[in-house]
């Protein structure tokens, strides 16, 4: 038998690459910043966050004071999704590690007021009854807009926003500090603020355009158009109704609890259960609190479960 090798004939060896990839594949959440920088999608997102920090002059480089507790920072990565659960964009944020703060020394009232669920339902009901415009905005790099006279960015951002909308003729509600009201003759507008998410309700298109212009000149904002998805709530509007749905959020909560395969029940509580200290498996307090908080938030669109949750 005469082989090719005996005649000096060699065919190049082709190694098949069975790995398939598409431009639409989603990069998984990185475990740390080093891994993130090795992925072009996350690297681009990190660069955008860094550019925003530099543009807003977020920090000044100083020598470390000997008597100061230093709060370290770390990266948070997440996938932003639309109301139908489809992927929208990558999001990376550089945040301070609040666990390193010392109560009454370098942290106090660090929270920012947020609009109440009852306020959201009330304002949307008014808008529906009067056929007013509903618009949605998102503030880019929210806390970077705060003028820091202290070390608490959330409250600084709220005060900056409050001070500006007052110059436009707004005042905040007595019952809800995150509801801002504008009234000039027949012109009426409401702003609902939840950290970086904003609902703008106006009595006319002209007033809406005017307020949008002023807000976008003062702050870096993303115009999301007509209200359709707010705080993980899907909003469907018809001439007669506004339907609020937490469907995707409810599914995620059930999955987080490990109950995706459970059967539904018309009464969401076991009235015959008898609990004692030795029955069942121990449940981690952190996970329990997380699920309880998730169910409390779900009552915004599902008041029928309020009694059981509370």
UniProtKB/TrEMBL annotation:
- Looking at the record, the residues that make up the Reverse transcriptase Ty1/copia-type domain are 56-151, 152-269
The entry's protein name is Reverse transcriptase Ty1/copia-type domain-containing protein
State the species of origin. Answer: Lithospermum erythrorhizon (Purple gromwell)
Organism lineage string: Eukaryota, Viridiplantae, Streptophyta, Embryophyta, Tracheophyta
């Amino acid at each position: 038998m005469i082989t090719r090798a005996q005649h000096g004939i060699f065919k190049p060896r082709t190694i098949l690459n069975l790995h398939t990839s598409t431009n639409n594949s989603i990069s998984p959440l990185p475990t740390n910043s080093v891994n993130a920088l090795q992925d072009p999608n996350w690297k681009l997102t990190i660069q955008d966050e860094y550019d925003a920090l530099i543009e807003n002059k977020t920090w000044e480089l100083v020598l470390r004071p000997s008597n100061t507790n230093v709060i370290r920072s770390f990266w948070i990565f997440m996938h932003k999704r639309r109301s139908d659960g489809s992927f929208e964009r990558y999001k990376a944020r550089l945040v301070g590690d609040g666990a390193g703060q010392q109560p009454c020394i370098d942290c106090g009232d660090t929270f920012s007021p947020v609009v109440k669920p009852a306020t959201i339902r009330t304002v949307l009901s008014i808008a529906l009854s009067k056929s007013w415009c509903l618009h949605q905005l998102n503030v880019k790099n929210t806390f970077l807009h705060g003028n820091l006279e202290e070390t608490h960015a959330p409250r600084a951002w709220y005060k900056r926003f409050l001070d500006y909308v007052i110059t436009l003729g707004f005042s905040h509600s007595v019952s809800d500090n995150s509801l801002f009201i504008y009234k000039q003759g027949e012109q009426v507008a409401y702003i609902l603020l939840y950290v970086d998410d904003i609902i703008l309700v106006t009595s006319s298109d002209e007033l809406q355009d005017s307020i949008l212009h002023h807000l976008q000149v003062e702050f870096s904002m993303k115009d999301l158009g007509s209200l359709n998805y707010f705080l993980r709530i899907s909003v469907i509007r018809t001439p007669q109704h506004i339907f609020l749905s937490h469907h995707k959020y409810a599914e995620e909560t059930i999955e987080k609890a490990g109950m995706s395969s459970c059967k539904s029940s018309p009464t969401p509580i076991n009235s015959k259960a008898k609990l004692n200290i030795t029955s069942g498996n121990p449940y981690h307090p952190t996970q329990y609190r997380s699920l309880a908080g998730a169910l409390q938030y779900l009552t915004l669109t599902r008041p029928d479960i309020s009694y059981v949750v509370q």
